[in-house]
Write a structure and sequence with these properties.
18 helices, 6-stranded antiparallel β-sheet, 459 residues, DUF2252, 2 domains, globular, alpha+beta, two-stranded antiparallel sheet
C-alpha cells in the first residue's frame, strides 16, 4: 500500500460509516412515517402560538401583522413559522443535524450578488436559523409549494410536480455532495441561469432579461434614485409607509442612539472592514415595515454616503429574537440573536454580504446587512409559470446549504435510493398544507369575532 492510497482507504471507510449512521437513523424516524401529521398532538392552539410572539414585537404594528396574515393561506404560512415549528416538534426526527434555514418556504430563496458581483441562487432568510434536523426545512419547503400553487390557482398536478421536483433534486444533490471533498462542497455555487434550465428558449430568455433588469435597478445607485429626495439641501429617505428614526427624539437621544448603533456594529465586523465602513457617514434613518412574518419587528433603514460623495449605500438593521425552534431544540449558543442569524447565514450561503454584522441597541438585538444590493426576491406570480423548475433549484440550494453544515453522506444514507423518503415528505406536506388552510380560517374567524385586532392602516 502506498502512502497516497492509505488516506483514500480511510476516507472511504469513514464515508461508509456515515452512510450506516444515516441508515440507523431510520429506526428513530422511519421515512414513510414522516408523512404522518396529527393535529391532535398540538399542545396549544395555533392562534395562541402566534399571540405568544407579541411580547417581542412593536404592539402598534400587531394589527397590521394579523391583517397581512389573514389576507390568504399563503400569507398566513409565511407568518406562522412558530406554529409549524411546534407542529414539527411533535413527531420523531432523524437526529441528523444541519444548520436549518428555519423558514425555508419557496419564496425565501432567490438571487444574491456575491462580493465579486456574480448573481448566485441561494436561501435568503435566516431569522429562524438554528442547528436542527435536516428534514424539517424540507417539510416546510414542500408544504409551501402546495400552498403557493393553490394561491396562484395552479393545477394540483403542477403542485405535485413542483413538490416532487424539490424533494427529488434535494436527494440527487445530496447524493453528489456525499462523495465530494469538503472544500468542493464549500465552494459549490448555483448561478442565476440554473433556475431557467428546462424552460423553452423564449420563456428562458424573457426571464433572463427580467433578472438582468431587476439586478440593475437593485444596486445602491438604483435604490437611491427611487428612495432619496432632498429637503433643505439634505438628502433624505422618502418611502411610505415608514416612520423616521428621529421622530419624537431629542438631539441627545439621537446622538446616543447613533453612537450605540455605530460602536456595537463596528465591534462585530472584521478589522479590515472597519476601515471601509469608517469611510461612510449616516445621512438619514427611517423606521421600516417589512414582509409578513417580520411585521412588528423593529427594522431601520439607513442611508450612508461615502467620503467620495459618489457612493450611496443603504444598510438595514433588523431586530433578531430567539428562533422559533429554540423551545424544542435548545438555545442557539450566542449571546446576541443577531449574531446567531449572521453566523447561520454564512454557514448556509455560498457567498454572503460583506457588511453582515450584529449589534444591541436599547436592549434589542439586531443584525445588519446591505439593503437590496442586487437581491432579486421573486413573488408567486413571477414563478408560477415555471414553478417545478424553480422548486427544483430550491431543493438543490437547500441540499447545498445542509451539506455545508451537516454530514451529507449520513443524510444521503438516510434518504436512500427508493421512494420511501420522498413519499413521506410529500405526504406530510399535502396534509400540512390543508392544516394551514384550516389555521388561516381560524385566524379570520378570530378577527371577525373581535378576539384579534387586525387593520391594514391605523398603526
Amino acid at each position: 500500500m502506498t502512502s497516497e492510497s492509505a488516506p483514500r482507504v480511510r476516507a472511504s471507510a469513514t464515508v461508509t460509516a456515515d452512510v450506516r449512521d444515516g441508515r440507523r437513523a431510520r429506526r428513530r424516524a422511519p421515512r414513510r412515517a414522516a408523512a404522518l401529521w396529527d393535529p391532535g398532538a398540538r399542545r396549544m392552539r395555533a392562534l395562541d402560538r402566534l399571540r405568544a410572539q407579541e411580547a417581542v414585537r412593536d404592539p402598534a404594528l400587531l394589527p397590521l401583522r394579523y391583517a397581512r396574515m389573514a389576507s390568504s393561506p399563503w400569507a398566513y404560512l409565511r407568518g406562522a413559522a412558530a406554529v409549524m415549528a411546534a407542529d414539527l416538534a411533535t413527531a420523531p426526527h432523524s437526529g441528523l443535524t444541519v444548520q436549518m434555514c428555519g423558514d425555508a418556504h419557496i419564496l425565501n430563496f432567490g438571487l444574491w450578488a456575491s462580493p465579486e458581483r456574480q448573481l448566485l441562487f441561494d436561501a435568503r432568510d435566516f431569522d429562524e436559523t438554528l442547528p436542527g434536523p435536516f428534514e424539517w426545512d424540507l417539510k416546510r419547503l414542500t408544504t409551501s409549494i402546495y400552498v403557493l400553487a393553490e394561491t396562484e390557482r395552479l393545477s394540483p398536478a403542477c403542485a405535485e410536480e413542483a413538490a416532487t421536483a424539490a424533494v427529488g433534486t434535494y436527494r440527487e444533490a445530496m447524493g453528489r455532495y456525499a462523495v465530494m471533498g469538503e472544500l468542493d462542497v464549500w465552494y459549490d455555487r448555483i448561478t442565476s441561469d440554473v433556475p431557467l434550465k428546462g424552460l423553452t428558449s423564449e420563456f428562458a430568455e424573457a426571464t433572463a432579461r427580467t433578472i438582468a433588469k431587476q439586478s440593475r435597478k437593485r444596486t445602491h445607485h438604483g435604490v437611491a434614485q427611487q428612495l432619496v429626495t432632498e429637503e433643505d439641501g439634505r438628502r433624505r429617505i422618502a418611502l411610505d409607509p415608514m416612520k423616521r428614526l428621529d421622530d419624537g427624539l431629542s438631539h441627545e437621544q439621537r446622538v446616543r442612539a447613533a453612537e450605540e448603533f455605530y460602536d456595537t456594529y463596528l465591534a462585530s465586523i472584521s478589522p479590515h472592514l472597519r476601515r471601509l465602513v469608517n469611510r461612510f457617514q449616516r445621512v438619514d434613518s427611517v423606521r421600516q415595515i417589512v414582509g409578513v412574518g417580520s411585521v412588528g419587528m423593529r427594522v431601520w433603514l439607513n442611508l450612508l454616503e461615502g467620503d467620495s460623495g459618489r457612493q450611496p449605500v443603504f444598510s438595514q438593521a433588523k431586530q433578531a429574537t430567539a428562533s422559533v425552534y429554540e423551545e424544542f431544540l435548545g438555545p442557539g449558543g450566542f449571546a446576541n440573536h443577531g449574531e446567531r442569524v449572521i453566523v447561520g447565514q454564512r454557514l448556509m450561503q455560498s457567498a454572503s454580504d460583506i457588511f453582515l454584522g450584529h449589534m444591541r441597541v436599547d436592549g434589542f438585538d439586531y443584525y445588519v446587512r446591505q439593503y437590496r444590493d442586487m437581491k432579486i426576491i421573486p413573488d408567486g406570480k413571477q414563478i408560477a409559470g415555471y414553478l417545478p423548475q424553480f422548486a427544483a433549484t430550491c431543493g438543490h440550494a437547500l441540499a447545498k446549504s445542509h451539506a455545508r453544515s451537516g454530514d451529507p453522506a449520513a443524510i444521503a444514507g438516510y434518504i436512500g435510493r427508493g421512494n420511501a423518503f420522498r413519499d413521506g415528505i410529500l405526504g406530510y406536506a399535502r396534509d400540512y398544507a390543508q392544516q394551514t388552510h384550516g389555521d388561516h380560517a381560524e385566524l379570520r374567524a378570530a378577527i371577525a369575532a373581535g378576539e384579534i385586532q387586525a387593520a391594514e392602516r391605523g398603526w
